[in-house]
TrEMBL record:
It is found in: Cell membrane; Membrane. Belongs to the cation transport ATPase (P-type) (TC 3.A.3) family. Type IB subfamily. This is Heavy metal translocating P-type ATPase. Residues 223-277 are annotated as: Disordered. It comes from the Bacteria.
Amino acid sequence: ATPAAVIAALGRLAGTGVLIKGGSALERLAGVTAFAFDKTGTLTEGRLELGDVIPLSGATPDQLLAVAAAAEQRSEHPLARLLVREASSRGLPLATVDEFRAHPGAGVTARAEGGALVVGTRRLMEERGVTLPPEAVAALERLDAAGQTSLVVARAGVVLGVLGARDTLRPEAAHVLAELRALGIRPVALLTGDRAAVARSVAEQLPVTEVHAEMLPAQKAEWVAAQKPASAAPSSPGGETDSNSNPAREEQRPTTDPVAGPVATRAPESLPDFPGEGVGGRGSSVAFVGDGINDAPALARAGVGIAIGSGTDVAAEAGDVVMMGAPLAPLPLLVKLSRETVRIIR
Ligand code: ADP
Ligand code: MG
């Protein structure tokens, strides 16, 4: 519904690798007061490296890796790719499996000759009736302390071991988040399926305002949907005085109070008026940035879903905005342009 101003803004974004699906996404972005980020592959590079390998129940490190990689052969998750790559570089043959199932935010299950395979979180083990021996619990705690993402590997109900993985923060992440805060964005939240200790160690290196760990994909979507437009418009751009990087170390918000009743139709001064685009709707004030495989629900529920695209990524279809090149760097410019564009239109 918009003329020259949108076209001009799109022109300034050309070459940054940002794809905006329609002018209305840009307009909705102008009304965004909060940002939420996924961790793996979004704030981090998503090119994982193998960390500690802790075999249990008499397994060898190679057996542990081979079983995990066999289960992960058909998963697109960065952890899965790491395990398959590692098994292949060690020359480990992978057993054929069937009944493969991916459990977003939790892991994978499959059936192999030696029995049912379960690879993933402690919660997934519990759901599948796998009991963790004390050595596995201790191993997970050691990996937490080391800031490593972890997963448990079980076959036929027996825990064969625990694996750790390390990821690298995107070098631009801290600066980009600081710029968003300077633009008045609150909260700048980290939402992750990873364990609290790992989330905290990432959050310590970033100017996020809140952290939520061990969230399933549906819980990320619920969090996004429950955000209400801030009561005041983003104020004092550049006037950021609160440099406290992460005051809130909460694990989870109370989920008992989702959006109570319809959200105010517009936040003063901050939301543009464009009918039919869900202004004032659930989650309309928040932009969610995710790469995932797992993040499609949150991308869909957000006022603006920003997908880190890899071309074949399913999330690229879910997003209103797709970042192809440098995935985080253009975000502050995008917010500034959207605000300018809306000012010009009105
Ligand atoms: P994030 O929110 O950081 O992107 P995910 O939601 O993708 O994390 O995953 C959360 C946790 O679930 C991981 O830390 C891992 O323990 C487990 N997990 C998810 N997918 C897999 C998988 N394919 N194989 C093993 N574990 C997995
Ligand atoms: Mg993810």
